Amino acid sequence: MTSLLRRLETAQDKPTNIGSSRKNLPPPADPERALKQAIHQSIIAEVRPELLSDAEREGEIKAHIAEIADRVMQDSGLIITRQDRQRIVQQLGDEVLGFGPITGLLNDDDVSEIMINSPQQVYVERRGRLELSAVTFRNSEHVMQVIEKIVAPLGRRIDESSPMVDARLPDGSRVNAIIPPLALKGPTMTIRKFSRDPLTIENLITFGTLGPSMAKFLQACVLGRLNIVVSGGTGSGKTTTLNCLSSFIPSDERIITIEDAAELQLKQEHVVTLETRPPNIEGKGTVTIRDLVRNSLRMRPNRIVIGEVRGGEALDMLQAMNTGHDGSLTTGHANTPRDMLARLETMVLMAGMDLPVRAIREQISSAIDLIVQQSRLRDGTRKITHICEVVGMEGDIITLQDIFVFVQTGRDPSGRISGDFKPTGIRPRFYEKLVDAHAQLPPDIFHPK
């Protein structure tokens, strides 16, 4: 936090001396900005850095900042309305204790994603729709201050030699930042927010992401220790669904989670969370998902939950699923269940193993039991459109069969896409495994209505 205060100090155009009269302030072109600079200088001088990391004293620190601000405003001789005073104090509190101008957006439960394209252009996703927010930054340096404040506590860095970084906020929200020379308009940051309270499967039913019968079926599949892949495009809600599925894992099992940036919020007690590590300034010390998957096999896991497979770790994951680590869960980017199988083939080849395509497909068909396909529809809603069983091989082709599908019927008066979640009438071949796991399923759950 000391480094934060130094950055706040050096980021100002020129140090401002605080005195007892207006003549002690330099004649500013922008009086409000000069006033904020003066208050910043007093905060740096009077607030001990170690207090800023004490969450329990946040209220006390905010009160202290307000006192400093009042004193400097009086000394400045400027006429400031009560409304402007409150706004300035709030902004300064956000700078010191929060993440600058976006602090309010981070605290807004209706905002699910924040996209900083440039200092003057900040978009948000609110209830599934993109909109331009009123939030702005002073300049590119101001955006960089916020990025550095996010990545520094995680031991990560961002500079011209390493201009991209993935990180997370204390609440688990996922952050991606990219800066010049790769980002031509200046530092760019995207924040994928997550609920303070993890969503439950009941929440997803309420939101219309899936139907009650599908939820009961997925719960039975997790209890039955099936290997499940949640497939979908960017922003389709894969991680949220994975989090809900993992909540069905019995509390007496040992769970190892592996992610690039830790996002999963498991409620069970016996959970070990592993996170990848980027290279250091010398380009060494990288720890990949593949490294962690291999290491997790030596940690006596009952279940392995991988946040997302996107490379050679797919081979190690499939081998783990085929060697007794049943009940594993992961996500992957694909637009259809069939595309997910093709992506898995490609990722296995990325492991550098010279395997025949048929051998890879046999590994996939024997390891994966179920593909849950999730999509973000044109109206911004998220739906589980297919729950597919991976049946096996027919010749050189992996065969799939739909168990549940979402059938679109039209749009309601508000413009939202309407439809029904329907069983296809096919009972999965692994049904006996669900019965053996004592899963309580209605006898007509697979009957088309």
Describe the structure.
There is one protein chain. The chain is α/β, with parallel strands linked by helices. It folds into three domains: 2-97, no CATH class; 103-192, Beta-Lactamase, CATH 3.30.450; 201-436, Rossmann fold, CATH 3.40.50.300. Helix content is 34%, strand content 22%. A hairpin with a 2-residue loop joins strand 1 (111-118) and strand 2. Helix 2 packs across helix 3, helix 3 (58-76) crosses helix 4 and helix 10 (289-296) runs parallel beside helix 11 (313-321). The longest helix has 19 residues, at 58-76. Residues 1-28 have low confidence and may be disordered.
Structural class by sheet pairing and helices: alpha/beta
Overall average residue pLDDT? 84
Range of helix content? 25-40%
Query: Can you summarize the main beta sheet?
Result: 9 strands, mixed
Order of helices and strands: HHHHHEEEHEEEHHEHEEHEHEHHEEEEH
Text of the CATH class of the largest domain: Alpha Beta
- The CATH topology of the largest domain is given as Rossmann fold
Low-confidence region ranges: 1-28
- Specify the CATH architecture of the largest domain: 3-Layer(aba) Sandwich
Strand content: 15-25%
* Fourth-tier CATH superfamily name of the largest domain: P-loop containing nucleotide triphosphate hydrolases
Instruction: Domain count, please report it.
Output: 3
Distance from first to last alpha carbon: 60 Å
Radius of gyration: 26 Å
What spatial form do the alpha-carbon principal axes imply? Answer: elongated
- The strand line-up of the biggest sheet is 9-8-10-11-7-12-13-14-15
